[in-house]
Design a protein that fits this description.
The structure is a homodimer.
Chain A lengths: L3 E6 L10 H9 L2 E5 H5 L8 E5 L4 H13 L3 E6 L8 H11 L8 E5 L4 H9 E2 L5 E5 L7 H13 L3 E5 L9 H12 L5 E6 L7 E6 L12 E5 L5 E3 L8 E3 L9
Parallel strand pairs in A: 1-4, 1-5, 2-3, 2-4, 6-13, 7-8
Antiparallel strand pairs in A: 8-11, 9-10, 9-11, 12-13
Helix pairs in contact in A: 3-4, 6-7
């Protein structure tokens, strides 16, 4: 019997955003492996084993899942959002690349999901309508100098920028530093979207001008989208949140 | 009666990647509006009107849909992939911003979908595992100088770069020019993924080193992903396609 390991994207949280393809993989898995809160989201099934772990042990979790698959299990490694975007898929392939050569012949698949950036953008309009970059603001896995250089490059070329992992108790100052860098080149009225727990019961989404934004508004569950110079608000009636969008055209209007 | 307009992401093509939330919107719409092939993908429903149009009339289509919603219809504007990524959502908000003020009080929603970049990445491994940019290579809506400056900035900061709209009969030379720019800074063995018609019956996905890639391999239905300096192949047994991934860490290894 040959094992199978699929890294499955659960999307932003609400099962209405889980694709049927991902749901099939979850239903047919013998073993679910993942960060506790993601595993807890899933219904219990008779005969299906559940292996929860802490958030900061991605490589250990990947190796554990690969071992299970090598023994013939059908393993689903669950991941929030899309597994390929600042989530579990890269950790699994890092483990394969540096681990037991037998893992290379395993059937390893990735089931895509709706990543937080797309969910947050959909909630406010179309802020990613132009070109955009997505980057992790965490300096756990890369030096802050690299984070800063990438942010500056993206701003200089007038990309919309989505920041994953903007802040945590262990990384309290990085988002404030990023906003200062943004303010060096973007106008004070540039729309900044702070989208917390998108499509979950405790969702909170705010769009603020750069001049009023503060890092303390964000937390670990927040994704931050920084508008380009062309990103616009469409004001609406009293009590209606404005739409936020980035036009597709740039420079001369078609 | 108040109308509703929802821009719905159909995902990469196969209905197994359509979210239940998007499927609900499609089922309850009185009117479907979209590019012919996208509308044709959807099952016919009694009493539901279908309005197909050509691919190059996004703004006209958006205005038509907004007018229908103003008259009380529940309109679903269908879009491939995710509507917020080089698709219909921005066109709808452009139309609102520059059109009938009544459109601003409409309820306009966006249902996210799996965008081509995520689907293509999932098929080969985790090439977006690090920071990445997504940009349209089309110079229909922005000057080529802007396209080129953004590509150079993204490469210089060592982002993975996903290119949407890489080539068409009306834009035959841009992708070749882009590959030349990539070759100025990236190694000849940098993995380039050309993913055509992902998750559709005529899917074709190739990963080639930069030195062997040619623009003629791509067509209108292709998305191109350019690896960062850290993007790696994991070679496997004879006959098995290599996995492609970008490690999460950069510079010093954790």
């Amino acid at each position: 019997m040959t094992g199978l390991l699929t890294v499955v994207g659960l999307g932003p949280g609400d099962p209405r955003f889980l694709t049927p393809a991902a749901a099939e993989v979850l239903a047919s898995a013998t073993d679910l492996v993942g960060y506790g809160p993601y595993v807890d989201r899933l219904p219990k099934r008779p005969g299906q084993r559940r292996h929860s772990s802490d958030n900061r042990v991605e490589l250990d979790r990947a190796r554990f899942a690969l071992d299970l698959a090598t023994k013939g299990a059908r393993v689903a490694v669950v991941s929030g959002g899309d597994p390929g975007v600042f989530a579990m898929a890269a950790a699994v392939f890092e483990a394969v690349d540096n681990g037991d050569p037998a893992w290379r012949s395993l059937d390893i698949r990735v089931e895509p999901g709706i990543t937080a950036m797309l969910a947050a953008a959909a909630r406010v309009g179309a802020p990613l309508g132009g070109d955009f970059c997505a980057m992790s603001l965490s300096d756990n896995l890369k030096p802050w100098e690299v984070v800063e250089a990438r942010l500056r490059a993206a701003l200089a070329a007038d990309f919309v920028v989505a920041l994953y992992n903007p802040i945590s108790s262990a990384r309290p100052w990085q988002l404030g530093a990023a906003f200062k860098i943004v303010a060096e080149t973007r106008d004070p009225d540039t729309p900044i979207i702070l989208a917390r727990a998108v499509m979950r019961p405790d969702e909170r989404i705010r769009t603020l001008p750069l001049s009023e934004v503060e890092a303390s508004i964000a937390d670990m569950s927040t994704i931050v989208i920084i508008g380009a110079s062309t990103t616009k608000l469409i004001e609406r009636s009293e009590g209606q949140a404005p739409y936020v969008y980035t036009p597709r055209f740039y420079g001369v209007r078609p």
